[in-house]
Design a protein that fits this description.
The complex is a heterodimer of chains A (about 260) and B (about 775). Chain A has about 260 residues and is of the alpha+beta class. Chain A has eleven helices and 14 strands. Chain A starts with a strand and ends with a helix. In chain B, helix 9 packs parallel to helix 18, helix 14 packs parallel to helix 15 and helix 17 packs across helix 18. The chains are: A alpha+beta (about 260), B alpha+beta (about 775).
Chain lengths: ~260, ~775
């Protein structure tokens, strides 16, 4: 990696000012994507601002009808958390299936969503559960947060602080993992709750998307059979050496049905 | 000593240091004053190097030197040699293009070596490497081996990018037999290219001592003497006596660390040139790009049968991709380690094999766990299974009809080998029992009821291990002999130091060889220490590859122990005032036959080193060396059966069960053997289900990291059912055969035969990825 200045602020304000004061500042959360990128010299930030010393960004709590997960909470903590397991088991399952044990012990929810990898699991979780992203400046609905491949609604100096997940009546996440990386080739989170039915797909396209036709069908009949005939077009989906767009389109249907069946 | 002797599952002695983090690998070593090497590698698959401007890099902080191919040329550094000359079907030697450690005027694959930057720190060297300006004049890339002969030319002296067009066997007889066959089965196969991925990337540190004009090279080598020989005699022109090669703890090789590569060559040369020790530690990305890859064959095979399903002839036509240059043993893998194995376990009377070996703009390809034999087994076992299905005979039964029977040994195949021993039907029957073959139809129905497709597949493999004897391999073009050395040295107080040319990089030699020596000499195992991997302390040895360590290296140690016992008898006879002929040796004790007079071997050793009372005509000391050159290969064989279930909705395969019955002859340590079988199967399943090296049309490696290159993991695999049969090798003193490659040789065919059984088509190439499987399953459902 190239040289950079390293900061480890103890407060969110200090982090924000370190970020705005840096030439090419970059926030590091768990570092699961950033550190390999730096090691391969594919990025050259002037400053790295490490959020790991900010206690306010860690932890899981209940807030009204929502589960609020601090941005620096690791995937392993989400997967193991009793409240998450009790209230939104689909989210615990999703976290349990991210990467491998090392990644889950280091990687964080805030880092994952700010990076917005099209094959990451959490975008499916946030959109599928109708979550709200909290930042140091505002709140952003998940539907508005992910704007494209590795792109989010975050401003340059904006830092994710937490994600609030409304507790659904039922939900499940079904993932077809890339056998090599274990990222999602297709991941589908299906939920039903106060906000209606949501079907969110990650991995298949450039960014997470919802399948409204399936949502409508499930709203009247929440069963795998209800979405049996609904095909997602392959146009615009990702295609690589692991899976063609056509295969991904097919898998969206399979994973959606499996998620619905698992949600019960 | 039944608990530590031959046949006991002794826990691995070496694990004390490995499991406590005390292993010493090349990268753990540092030499005073060392500089760090970083290679400037080609980002292009094929380009002329018009110029290399090193000015900015040379002026960068910490930089000691920036060296290029021109510097090596000026110093007279030679080409990395190919160690096996294959004579083509027209009697001409194979085309052997130059392979300079740093290119002189052209790059031929992504990762090819353009320059080296030496700096005080690795970071500084990396920074400076980015400042080396290379003017590449792009050339079209030649990537697809099926079109390589018509593609852009890589080497001026290899027209049509053809290294050789070679054949083995009687083509006319095969054509004639096929024309008269009652049934001919034809299958087209691809043996996919693999990237070895030993857990420790390659590394080297070289230093030059101006006081003695001698070099020391620490390197991740499977065969330090061979590396020294190649570096001294062919590349650098150093007297062998002036280069010491040390291969300390090495984390796996699978063949990829046999070869003399550009990196250690450059480090050794540059250490003298700069007067500083030079250290290079490969990064994983470099391993992907530039370690010798494995396999990469395309084959059409035809198997002819008579009306009773007896094989009458087999014809094999293969194109082998050798990559951009010839790695040290690249030429022999698709010829003498491949075509010679095409009889498999069967009595097929005539076989012909033609191999065209081509150059492409990809990383060099060489031996990788199994080396030619997995390719041969895959060809035979896929076509045999397909033939059974075509003529409607049970695949196990068809194999049994054609096995070489136990009373036919020694059995001369039509492809040059003479099998020494085997009980093929015995292994098959055991495997059928282990997998509960009789219960398979019911299990298939149960899967069907769940909407799943179940398949079962066989692989009755044979391999030739311990490549030998030297005179034969020499006549076939090998540039080296293939014996092994072993030295057994008693120390005065009765402990034993064992020196072996077989390098251990995961095989557990320190345990197996200790068991062997301990058992033979009657010395407690904790008093036996195995030394390997240092040309400064071991006798000249050929190293570890081709499942040869126990059969060849172990036999050398056994012979050395025999010499120790022979000399010990003379000393014992003198001490006990008896005739040498009356001395018996058993479990560490020399006895005068028929009396109660005896001496322990420790006493004899002490007498040999403190020879106050000693035979006049005998040299002091108890230290014997043996070089063992085998009379023949050994022929491990067995049957693996894979049973799996496919989810047609996603194409995901789950291996339900795996039975492996292998005949490795005499087994010294069953636990280590079982571990080798497990690892081999995992590697074979890796090839068949997960691993695939992919280059794009421009020659860029698309699978350059673990994000895209899928290694097998524990949860991809079932719990294996592993058993052995024991048919001792009749021509080595231990009766052993070798077990290191068997799993990787057997597994791909067993897996793919199960996949094709489940899917009902032969037309699927490795790896059987979910999308490929899904497409076939969908097409089958649509057809129904």
């Amino acid at each position: 990696m190239y040289e950079f200045n390293y900061h480890r602020p103890a407060s969110l304000d200090a982090a924000a000012s370190a970020l705005s004061g840096a030439g090419e500042g970059k926030i590091v959360a768990g570092g699961m994507t950033l550190i390999p990128t730096l090691k391969q010299r594919l990025a050259q930030p002037s400053d790295l601002i490490d959020l790991s010393a900010i206690a306010d960004l860690k932890g899981i709590s209940e807030d009204g009808g929502s589960i609020v997960i601090g941005a620096m909470t690791t995937h392993a903590e989400v997967a193991d958390n009793a409240t998450v397991k009790a209230k939104i088991p689909a989210l615990a399952d999703l976290a349990e299936g991210i990467g491998d044990i090392q990644v889950r012990n280091r990687g964080t929810i805030g880092g994952s969503i700010a990076n917005a990898d099209p094959a990451a699991d959490y975008p499916g979780g946030l959109v599928g559960l109708g979550a709200t992203v909290r930042t140091n400046k505002r709140e952003i609905a998940a539907d508005d947060f992910f704007t494209g491949m590795f792109e989010t609604a975050l401003a340059e100096d904006e830092i994710v602080t937490a994600v609030a997940f409304p507790v659904p009546d039922k939900a499940a996440y079904a993932k077809f993992a890339n056998p090599a990386s274990r990222y999602a080739i297709v991941g589908v989170l299906v939920s039903q709750g106060a906000g209606g039915v949501r079907v969110a797909v990650t991995g298949a396209g450039p960014s997470v998307f919802r399948v409204t036709e399936m949502e409508q069908a499930l709203a009247s009949n929440f069963s795998a059979a209800a979405i049996e005939g609904i095909a997602v077009p392959a146009d615009g989906l990702n295609s690589d050496i692991h899976a063609s767009a056509e295969y991904r389109a097919h898998l969206v249907g399979v994973m959606a049905r499996r998620a619905v069946a698992a949600a019960g | 000593m039944p608990d530590t002797g031959i046949g006991a599952s002794v826990r691995r002695k070496e694990d004390q240091r490995f499991l406590t983090g005390k292993g010493r690998y090349t990268d753990d070593l540092n030499r005073p004053g060392q500089v760090h090497a970083v290679f400037v590698r080609s980002p292009h698959a094929h380009a002329t190097v018009a110029s290399v401007n090193i000015a900015a890099a040379a002026a960068a902080p910490g930089v000691i030197a920036v060296l290029t191919g021109k510097d090596m040329e000026a110093d007279g550094v030679g080409s990395l040699p190919c160690g096996w000359t294959v004579t083509d079907k027209h009697g001409e030697p194979h085309k052997a293009p130059d392979h300079f450690p740093l290119v002189r005027d052209k790059v031929r694959y992504v990762g090819d070596h353009v320059a080296v930057v030496l700096a005080e720190s690795a970071i500084q060297a990396k920074d400076a490497a980015e400042l080396v300006e290379v003017d590449y004049q792009m050339l079209p890339a030649n990537v697809d081996p099926s079109k390589a002969m018509d593609g852009p030319l890589l080497h001026d002296n290899a027209p049509s990018n053809l290294c050789y067009d070679w054949e083995l066997g009687d083509q006319a007889a095969v054509d004639e037999a096929l024309s008269r066959a009652a049934h001919v089965t034809t299958v087209d196969l691809v043996n996919n290219r693999l990237i070895p991925n030993a857990i420790e990337p390659r590394a080297a540190i070289a230093e030059f001592d101006t006081g003695t004009d001698s070099y020391t090279l620490y390197s991740t080598s499977q065969n330090p003497h061979l590396l020294r020989l190649i570096l001294c005699a062919f590349v650098l022109g150093i007297p062998e006596s002036k280069l010491r090669v040390i291969a300390p703890d090495v984390g796996g090789g699978f063949g990829s660390k046999i070869y003399c590569y550009a990196e250690e060559t450059v480090c050794t040369w540059a250490a003298r040139k700069t007067g500083r020790p030079v250290k290079w530690t490969g990064e994983r990305s470099e391993s992907f790009l530039a370690d010798a890859h494995g396999r990469d064959h395309m084959t059409r095979v035809q198997l002819g049968m008579d009306a009773e399903g007896k094989f009458v002839a087999m014809k094999v036509d293969t194109t082998a991709n050798l990559g951009a240059y010839l790695s040290n043993f690249a030429t022999c893998v698709p010829t003498y380690l491949y075509a010679t194995l095409l009889a498999g376990q069967y009595t097929t009377p005539v076989i012909h094999c033609n191999v065209k070996a081509v150059f492409t703009n990809t990383a060099p390809v060489d031996a990788y766990r199994g080396a030619g034999r997995p390719e041969a087994t895959y060809v035979i076992e896929r076509v045999v299974e397909a033939a059974a299905r075509e003529i409607g005979v049970d695949p196990a039964e068809l194999r049994k009809r054609n096995f070489v029977p136990p009373d036919a040994f020694p059995y001369a195949t039509p492809v040059a080998l003479t099998y020494d021993s085997g009980q093929y039907a015995l292994a098959m029957d055991k495997a059928l029992e282990l997998i509960d073959y009789a219960g398979f139809p019911a299990r298939r129905e149960a899967s069907k009821a769940k909407g799943k497709l179940r398949g079962i597949g066989f692989s009755a493999y044979i391999e030739a291990c311990g490549i030998a004897p030297s005179a034969v391999v020499g006549s076939l073009g090998a540039g080296v002999g293939l014996y092994e050395s072993g030295q057994v040295r008693f120390n005065p107080t009765g402990t034993v130091s064992v020196f072996t040319g077989s390098h251990s990089h995961g095989q557990g030699h320190e345990t197996t060889f200790s068991q062997l020596v301990s058992d033979t000499l009657g010395v407690p195992i904790e008093n036996v220490e195995v030394v390997h991997g240092d040309t400064g302390s071991i006798p000249f040895g050929m190293g570890t590859y081709g499942s040869r360590s126990l059969a060849v290296g172990g036999s050398a140690l056994s012979k050395a122990c025999d010499k120790i016992i022979e000399k010990g008898k003379k000393i014992a006879a003198h001490l006990m005032e008896a005739s040498v002929d009356d001395i018996e040796f058993d479990q560490g004790t020399f006895r005068v036959a028929g009396t109660d007079k005896e001496k322990a071997i420790g006493e004899i050793a002490f007498a040999a080193y403190v020879p106050h009372n000693y035979p006049e005509d005998l040299e002091p000391g108890l230290d014997e060396t043996s070089f063992y050159d085998p009379l023949n290969f050994t022929y491990p064989a067995g049957t693996h059966v894979c049973e799996l279930e496919i989810d047609p909705e996603t194409g995901v395969i789950e291996i339900a069960d795996w039975a492996a019955v292998d005949d490795f002859g005499k087994v010294v340590n069953p636990m280590i053997v079982e571990g080798q079988v497990h690892g081999g199967i995992a590697q074979g399943v890796g090839q068949a289900m997960l691993e695939n090296c992919v280059y794009d049309a421009d020659g860029q490696l698309l699978t350059g990291s673990y994000m895209d290159y899928c290694m097998p993991r524990a949860d991809d695999l079932p719990s294996f059912k592993v058993e052995t049969t024991e048919t001792p090798c009749p021509h080595n003193p231990l009766g052993v055969k070798g077990c290191g490659e068997a799993g990787a040789i057997a597994a791909p065919a067993a897996f793919m035969n199960a996949v094709t059984d489940a899917l009902g088509t032969e037309d699927i190439a490795m790896p059987a990825s979910p999308e490929k499987v899904w497409r076939i399953a969908q097409a089958a459902q649509a057809a129904e």
